[in-house]
Amino acid sequence: MKKILNRSGDIVTQSIQGFLAAYDKYFEAVPETNCIVYKNRRKGKVSLVIGGGSGHEPLFSGFVGKGLADASANGNIFASPNPQVITETAKAVDEGKGVLFIYGNYEGDNLNFDMAEEMCGFEDIKTAHVRVWDDCASAPKERIEDRRGIAGDIYVIKVAGAACDAGLSLEEVLRVTEKARDNINTIGLATSPGSIPGLNKPTFELGEDEIEFGMGMHGEPGIERTTMKPVDELVDRMYDELKREMSLNSDDEVAVLVNGLGSTTLVELNTVYYELDKHLKSEGIKVHDAEIKSWCTCQEMGGFSITILRLDEELKKYYDASCCSPYYAREALI
Amino acid sequence: MKKILNRSGDIVTQSIQGFLAAYDKYFEAVPETNCIVYKNRRKGKVSLVIGGGSGHEPLFSGFVGKGLADASANGNIFASPNPQVITETAKAVDEGKGVLFIYGNYEGDNLNFDMAEEMCGFEDIKTAHVRVWDDCASAPKERIEDRRGIAGDIYVIKVAGAACDAGLSLEEVLRVTEKARDNINTIGLATSPGSIPGLNKPTFELGEDEIEFGMGMHGEPGIERTTMKPVDELVDRMYDELKREMSLNSDDEVAVLVNGLGSTTLVELNTVYYELDKHLKSEGIKVHDAEIKSWCTCQEMGGFSITILRLDEELKKYYDASCCSPYYAREALI
Hints:
Two copies of one chain form a homodimer.
Chain A: H1 11-22, E1 27-29, E2 36-38, E3 47-54, E4 71-77, H2 83-93, E5 99-104, H3 107-122, E6 127-132, H4 152-165, H5 170-181, E7 184-192, E8 195-196, E9 201-202, E10 210-213, E11 224-227, H6 231-246, E12 253-260, H7 266-282, E13 286-293, E14 302-310, H8 313-320, E15 323-324, E16 329-330
Parallel strand pairs in A: 3-4, 3-5, 5-6, 12-13
Antiparallel strand pairs in A: 1-2, 2-4, 7-10, 7-14, 8-9, 10-11, 12-14, 15-16
Helix pairs in contact in A: 2-3, 4-5, 6-7
Domain DhaK (chains A, B): 7-328
InterPro entries (chains A, B): DhaK_dom (IPR004006), Dihydroxyacetone_Kinase (IPR050861)
GO molecular function, one term (chains A, B): glycerone kinase activity
């Protein structure tokens, strides 16, 4: 494993500094942290702060920008940001209308963002939070609050950003964002591990011909370890899980994300969509929009996930609002 | 090597069909080919057609869109499109104002695009071409026409697209595009091979601790094979090559692209920019714009390249024009 890194110095700090140097027209640091702020952030509205462990780029910093988050609170590699830097980040963007936090549902993040909300309270900053738990392979539906947040984070952030832009109150932004969170599900599949930057250690072990359905971004257990299969069989299985989970039917209109986990190529991800499209068409599900991106990664991990967001008219309006960051631009191409 | 592909069927066709299914609002196929056309392509202006071998995604199809190319002619994996499909693609977008072809300077592409231009001539379609040869490690300056085209393709396409949009004549679009091509250089570095989809074969061999400066996308020889080094030393060496090649100095204003070759993560690519930024700043070079992307890849190849485009007022105007495709959006975030 050859990682292109320095011999010394903090890996996350150098990476964030590089990102800020390249995109300095758009972003600046929250002083003395690895957190970033969009220079042209919202004024006079509810602010949106996202965050979590580093190592999953472009998530989270790549989703700060126009129509998206005002700031991201970035932790160390695979580790939650601490309550102090989350609070500093919220203070840097608060406009007196309240701050919504969106993050993946992980124990460390839950603890630290909860403490940050307490600290914000001492500073008279109104807060609320949405924990994304889209990974339907990570726990049964009855224990939905044990599920992990993965690629579904991104569409939840997208919808929340548009709701903030629309000038809604914190309570209303929270309602809309929870609606997005409650209508999104993801299932992933791992073919090979990523490595932990700086440690040169794989994040998990998988045999030469093994794959695991539902494996988490950091190697958390999935729902089935099996042998490698052709993509049509992989997508069949994954679509069935999502269909059952979401009771998908021909009345549904959805936004879809095929997300690469790191080293899986676009030739492969496009082929995943080629197979997925057959299911969606044959079931009569209306695809309002689709993306094929490597947005929520775990270093050079191999594999992909499929995310489906069920839309109603309200969610569609916010999903369709334009947005722009170095990694996510949504405007009418036509 | 576990590639997420089908047991049978054409790999490129399935991949392109998947891309078209996901982005069907924007693109359609040139009938009976793997070539794609932007549905809202230019009207009454010079048309821009790009192309080359598949396997380097998002290049080329990812750079078809608003302000970019009208169409891409896509070959098989690592193989040039044939003259017939190039001609069909040109016919699908020609508006009687002429078609400019942009492609990387490879023997197969040169031959096939030349034949396509002849065939277009029989159909009374006026054509011109620009071969991109930005890879300064692939041949000495005196034999510039032996150099390969790599990530520099993208900014050349960007400038050309804006020149087409501006309503310039074919001769003028050609002049501007050649100016971009003549002011762009790239140097790459390989840390590990990609694999050939369908063959499960690495594209080249590199030892456990070996890297190669200047190695081509398909494993073509570079300028030095050496042991792995920390990123500051890698970037030092690469910046020196570009500086000498381009005689970079403090009068220069540039656009920069740090491009990942496939599996190299954003933590690493951001760190490359962190080091590169020190050189650019200490030399007083004005960075007009920068991107950190994996735009020109070779499957899961490891490594990166650095591209520098020297700008004058004319090139800057075209570089700055807005553009939008699923992979390249340029609009003022601010």
